[in-house]
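Teaching assistant here, posting this on the class forum so everyone can see the example we discussed in section. The complex has two components, and the goal was to see what a joint structure prediction looks like when all of them are supplied at once.
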Amino acid sequence: MSRDDSPPTGVRVVDVRLHLLSRQVLDVDGEPVTTVDDLELVAADAPEDGRRDAVPGEPAEVGAILTGPVLLTRLLGGRPPASRWEPVPWSDVGHVGTAIELTVQADSLDVHWTEDWLREHVVGRIPGGRHDPEEES
Amino acid sequence: MKRLLGVALGILTAIGGFVDIGDLVTNAVVGSRFGLSLVWVVVVGVVGICLFASMSGRVAAVSGRATFEIIRERLGPRAAGANLAASFAINLLTLTAEVGGIALALHLASSVEPRLWIPVAAFAVWLVLWRVKFQVMENVAGLLGLLLVGFGVALFLLGPDWGELLRQAVPPSPPATEHVATYWYYAVALFGAAMTPYEVFFFSSGAVEEGWTAKDLAQNRVNVLVGFPLGGLLSVAIAACAAVVLLPAGIEVSSLSQIVLPVAEAGGTLLLALVIVGIVAATFGAALETALSSGYTLAQYLGWSWGKFRRPARAARFHVTMVVALLLAVAILMTSVDPVAVTEMSVVFSAVALPLTYVPILLVANDPEYMGEHVNGRATNALGMVYLVIVVAAAVAAIPLMIATGAGS
């Protein structure tokens, strides 16, 4: 879109810095998943299996929400290798509001592994770790 | 009737929960050195915490977003990360002071060495965090904290010269023996003690824990606007007791036993016992709040699931964070550091970190995307701007004053 194109009416303009980056991501049940640490841009209109990196001068779209080690490099500079990215595919995003709402469950996402690991190996093993605090005990 | 009871309970817990080890120590120290000449700072601090606590509670109730999520979202990863590092460190310092405070109070009651009480106190704090329902936890600590009213009772029993106390307070007339820089150093400390950032982290996250919606806003406002000022009165009573007994005797407060000396003198063992229970409850409640706040801040910055309303296994990283914070607090205390000295440090550093927390709250409270029709009114914003200036001034002045006065000595 060139600079003086005003958006067509009825289309919501999302400011990446203001409305996406650093927003809370919630899963389909409203459980917090992560925060948007960075975004991956891919070439627009690429076939689903043949994803290409975005090329300057050509249309690009958001491919995934990135989290994990990306936060550190956003703070300190540099870029982690793609193998260390922890992506949430943009296709899982259902709604962008004051939080980003996903259409899948947190447990099904790879980015959730630290939480899952601590749950299985530490917190879930302490007596009472799976007790619901809102229930009468 | 049930509704009225709910309102009363909310107010009472807000009063009992207002005072923590920071308020206790700083007010007693200030009272014993400056009389009531710094009472105006308590007033300024209480108005400020009312303003920002109710604002952060309103943001959380309307948008469902707690304070540190907002800080991250508005300041970005870098500035929010700096705020997180500072807030987490100060929070840890405050947690250390609170756990130390529990141990000191139990030591007063039992004469068992405080260092033996420290692990017991920390374990008890963890057990409550692990198991007890959020609302039960808040109400019990708050209601028992009300026993600090004993300081007010003691003040009346002491039968002070009220005219003299009033003369110290308005216009503020510090004793001629104290340097003006020291006066302002303690003004900043007292301000930091009243406005400690953990209170807004806790307050806004607590609104999410209790599932507040826009409908609960009236209750929120009453709790804060009635409860906090009455809690502030407890602070003033502590300072006044020190001003009446310790100032003329030339005793400078450096331990908890000196803080409760006026109570023992006025009301004997019974009142002392009640006040000690009050101190244990107040510091225990604040230890819970600061431990939770350490989990809240980190989890909200990184987007983890958090909250006591979830099963611990559903907020695993949050619970691990709190355990680590508690273990660190115990480790710090086990070096035999004086909890009272830790407290004095923590309130001054709190003052330094204030702007980074209060600016984003003010911004988001004006953002219709979050707040809809509940954005700040004009009067709130005007007051918010005034406090922004005060908060920045206190933050800038804190460290230079600390160096210039040798931390108030």
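For the discussion questions: The mean pLDDT of chain A is 83. Residues 60 and 114 of chain A are 31 Å apart (CA to CA). Think about how each of these relates to the inputs above.
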